[in-house]
Amino acid sequence: MAVSTGEHVLATVQQRGQAALGRLGLPTRKQEAWRLTNLSRLEAVARMPVNGVATASDAPPCLDGVVRLVLDGVNDPLEGVTLPEGLTPLEPKELELALGHTLDRCGLSDDWLVEFNHASAQQLLALRVCGTVPPLEITMAAASGLIPTRVLLVVEEKAQLELLQVFSGRGEAAHSHLMEVHLGQEAQLNHGVLACADGVAALFAQLAVEQEPRSTYNFTSVVQGWSLGRIEPRVVQVDGQASTTLKGLAVADLEQQLAVHTWVCFEGPDGELDQLQKCLAAGRSHTIFNGAINVPRKAQRTNAAQLSRNLLLSDRARVDTKPELEIVADDVRCAHGATVSQLQEDELFYLRSRGIGASDAAALLLRGACQEVVDLLPTHASAWRPLERVLEGLAS
Amino acid sequence: MIRPDAELLLDITDLHASVEDQPILKGVNLQVRSGEIHAVMGRNGSGKSTLSKVLAGHPAYRVTSGTVRYRGENLFELEAEERARLGVFLGFQYPVEIPGVSNLEFLRVATNARRLKQNLEELDTFDFEDHVHERLKVVQMDPAFLERSVNEGFSGGEKKRNEILQMALLEPVVAILDETDSGLDIDALRIVAGGVNQLANANNATLLITHYQRLLDEITPDYVHVMASGRILRTGGRELALELEQIGYDWVDKELAAQGVA
Amino acid sequence: MTSTSTRDLVSQPYKYGFVTEIETDKIDKGLSEEVVRLISSKKDEPEFLLNFRLKAFRHWLTLDEPDWAALGYEAIDYQDIIYYAAPKQQAKKASLDEVDPKLLETFDKLGIPLSEQKRLSNVAVDAVFDSVSIATTYKEKLAEHGVVFCSFTEAVKDHPELIEKYLGSVVASNDNYFAALNSAVFSDGSFVFIPKGVECPMELSTYFRINSGDTGQFERTLIVAEEGASVSYLEGCTAPMFDTNQLHAAVVELVVLDDASIKYSTVQNWYAGDENGVGGIYNFVTKRGQCRGARSRISWTQVETGSAITWKYPSCVLQGADSVGEFYSVALTNNCQQADTGTKMIHVGPRTRSTIVSKGISAGRSSNSYRGLVQMGPGAKGARNYSQCDSMLIGDQAAANTYPYIRSQQPQAAIEHEASTCRISEDQLFYLQSRGIGFEEAVSMMVSGFCRDVFNQLPMEFAAEADKLLALKLEGSVG
User: Does A263 score more than 50 pLDDT?
Assistant: First the structure.
């Protein structure tokens, strides 16, 4: 029993999780958070055998200087890996204190997805980051059955990390992923998530982030090709005064359903949020965005901006977007905007008037729309050819 | 330069067009031959801009009657991109910004589409870079603009120069420049005009849509047409532009009234 | 702020808080099928209407009260309410001379004089006292134009075929909990019918006055504009101050046919409860307009300042091609009020357009939520929506929440939504004061400025009222 997996810590978590699931039952349409979800697909995932097959997949060779860890839900990801200076596994005592702490801060108790992961996860990766470390890559592949994974990151004061998580999925497989991050004062984390699948696999990924004052969290997610995808980044600035950037690109085609549910809470003054979510729905797919922002009384001088941009690429696709702002502090700047449209006629015409054919023009515009977010992934994401993957996934 | 036996590039006959069910062009007649420079002037709302968009094939505009032949072919049977590849170029009044699409990439794709139609070889990335650097000189543009997204963050003058740069790359047969001079200071205007003059030759033609006479100080037109209420009211030589400068457009109302048109 | 910075939560005393002593015909508390039949018989209704009520009542019994809104309120005991109370005057009086003078005096005090000499000359008023219409001015003049404007009860007697045709066609009784309740026990309201091609020559207005403390108020309003017709209608309301909460569950249905338009304005000044949240009206209203005809138009304009709890979402269903729906709203909450209000624009037909401008002002310890839905169905080709939701926060204890739902299935429909928050900043106040403008007036100017886009939509007579009303409601809450 390797220390880094925290197996015995997870054992109690598993028990509680299973009990909670029994109590909660499956989500229903009556619950606002699940009102639009394709519940039959959810049920299918809930019934998948745990610890399915995690193939090595077609991962590109790891770039020089990048530390790659593979999570398959069973084996110790740190076995045989020499961690660079600054990256250390958490000691069991620290683990007991830290595990679940951020989940609580982010209001994630009695949440079905969290309990689902609690009940299923047998493997935990828990790391502490000190100083400046080489870029880190965590890969998770699923080819059959459910792969539950859990990660805990404690980023010390003033530490800096570039982290890329890559999820891939094929066939009747699903990911249940839960990640907690604690950012110490003046710490900086550039976090990218690249999740592309073949249109059949499912993805549930929840992220809970606690930011101490003066820390910086830049999160970029690029999610495409999941028959049922749901990603839930939640961030709490425990005393404000921190900077949070959430940029996301969700691309769905065929019969896929992709949901992004974000939540940001400022528990102190002078915090900043810059959020952009782009959803592209083609074929008969359905994209959902729900962006909650909470600015209580103590969060004076918060500066938050959220933009939801949605592109409908076919007559049968559907878009749902619901920004949610709850504001009490009055000396704040909180703005949000949402648009839903198809590719802009003026832009298409401009390109066509330069001799570029209609479908090439549309492709150029789509590429540009995706590129804006894809370019924000950590630099080492380039090895995975993210833009190509996303565009390949758009059958049209 | 006017030569009566030059090829008839653009033959517009009794053109009527609407946008959102509102008739704008009400019978435009115009002939443009190879080697000529035409200026179309008129007040806002006269239909000048609409004419340019209709010729380029903008989907929001509907042709209700009339014909346009481009080098003998029915222009309206061609899709917008076909017209462009065959050498019809529209310089927009308000070039749109396209964030995320690289200027260099866009220019290369457009250039190659045109070259294909001209039976020339496509240029690969390296050859194109050389090719475009040559053309940058025509508009005195900084190569840094190639790295940016199409027109994103460009000033008004920079956008117009980007249009002329495209002209230099695409080598159109008929270039329709819609108020290319609007919003430009005199220096920018000179650069843009210089580019147009450099590119004009005996085998192509330019249609300048303009509100003010000052562009015509820099580019000498062979014909000047005055448009009002969706039609060309009067045609003359250079002097007509100078006359308009002096007396303005008020006489247009009188003439329209005399013709019994609103 | 300067020395006037005590957060004084006492607003100007609600000057409509008086009660009129008048004999009222009430039935016992409680709701059952017998009560529904009793109400119908007291009003001498035809069979179709009794059946309408019974069907709705039976459906209501099967429903659960909704609880999703961001409100917290004490559960309403539906058996502890009186469902019918009418001032004891017999038939609707032919002439105002015959109306109980105490009733006329009531409306006088409310600033809605009904007598010939004093009434507003360009506004026809239907005065409703405790859900019973007691007088309608200018009926004959309107009848000359073919316009029908009368109480709902009268409409059932005089135009039953119109009622039967249109009642429940926009808000079905099974639409929601309160619509079902209303459909079962509604007492009275206004009926407006504008025939083909007629532009109603005057503003029409219904003024609701709640008087009894323990009755529920269930008005039903139906406005129909036939092809090419148009009308501007204003709804005003006040109620006395009571210690207990009162339930107001109204239903308003609007129908516009080809090229017709209805402008529906509301200036709502119910009793909001005292500064500690005791008393006040529970206002749950279902208002919906159906743009059935091509190029038809419905405009909702509202200024909400009262009511302890508000739950209303005036909506437009845009069926006819090129039809237009508009929603302009100012919602002010102060002290302990809670408002959950907004609009639904359902685009069904092609090239339909909707505009939403919502201004929320949150002061005191109140909670002001905007909940909107913009939906583009597959048939809404070329449709457009533009929404703007702005919140003004006064003080740091009030909440402004915005929940704009957007759903679309039509790529050729464009939706644009923006929202922002602001406050009355010390710098801005000081600037105005340094130019000689008093504190209260400066606040009032800034709030008016914030609401300008909406006030511009109100009929002229009421725009000035709205300004004053807001100023009144906000007194003492800034500083």
Answer: yes
Residues of C with CB under 8 A from a CB of A: 68, 376, 378, 391, 393-421, 423, 425
Name which of A95, A89, A54, A52 is nearest A71 in CA terms: A54
> What residue type is A100 in one-letter code?
G
Q: How many domains does chain B fold into?
A: 1
Report the C-alpha gap between B248 and B226 in whole angstroms: 11
Contact in structure between A289 and A257 (CB atoms under 8 Å)? no
Please report the pLDDT score of residue C154 as a whole number.
87
Q: CA B252 to CA B239: how far, in whole Å?
A: 17
Minimal CA separation from C57 to chain A, in Å: 24
First to last CA, chain A: 49
pLDDT at C447: 83
Q: Is the pLDDT of residue C343 over 90?
A: yes
Share of chain A above pLDDT 70, in %: 96
- Which of B59, B90, B95 has its CB closest to that of A345? B59
pLDDT of res. B187:
86
Residue A193 predicted with pLDDT over 70: yes
Q: Given CB atoms, is A310 within the 8 Å cutoff of chain C?
A: yes
Is the residue at B3 inside a domain?
no
- Mutation test of the interface with chain A: which of B86, B94, B101, B116, choosing the one with the most A Cβ atoms within 10 A? B101
Per DSSP, the three-state class of C447 is helix
In a domain, B2, yes or no: no
- In our burial notation (b when 16+ CB lie closer than 10 A, e otherwise), range C68-84 reads ebebeeeebeeeebbbb
From the CB of residue C413, how many other CB atoms can be counted at a distance below 10 Å? 27
Is residue B1 included in any domain, yes or no?
A: no
Q: Give B170's contacts in chain A (Cβ within 8 Å).
A: 354-355
Which tens digits make up the pLDDT trace of A71-129? 988 888 898 889 999 999 998 888 888 999 999 999 988 899 999 999 998 889 999 99
Q: Which residues of chain B have pLDDT under 50?
A: none
Tokens of C280: 């006040």
Mean pLDDT throughout A3-7?
A: 51
B96–A358 CB contact, under 8 Å: no
Mark yes or no for CB contact B80/A353 under 8 Å.
yes
In chain B, residues with a C-beta closer than 8 Å to the C-beta of A364 are 101, 105-106, 109
- Whether B101 sits inside 8 A of A356 (CB atoms) is no
The CATH code of the domain that includes B215 is 3.40.50.300
Residues in A 333-362 with any Cβ partner in B closer than 8 A: 344-347, 349-358, 360-361
Residue A296 distance to chain C (closest CA, Å): 8
Residue of A nearest to B113 (CA): A355
A363–B contact, CB cutoff 8 A: no
pLDDT over 70 at C148, yes or no: yes
Query: Which contiguous run of DSSP H or E holds residue C39?
Result: helix C33-42
**Which pLDDT value is given to residue C4?**
28
A24 at the B interface (CB within 8 A)?
no
Residue B102 belongs to domain spanning: 8-258
Per-residue pLDDT tens over the stretch C62-105: 988 776 455 566 667 787 777 777 665 545 555 556 666 766 66
Instruction: Flag whether pLDDT at A310 surpasses 70.
Output: yes
pLDDT-based confidence at C9, cuts 50/70/90?
very low
Residue type, C234: L
Contact predicate C285/C189, CB 8 Å = no
Contact B98 A350 (CB under 8 A): yes
Residue B77 confidence (pLDDT): 92
CB–CB of C421 and A334 under 8 A? Answer: yes
B169 lies in some domain:
yes
Quote the pTM value: 0.82
What secondary structure does DSSP assign to A213-282, as a single string? TT-EEEEEEEEE--SEEEEEEEEEETTS--EEEEEEEEEE-TT-EEEEEEEEEE-SSS-EEEEEEEEEE-
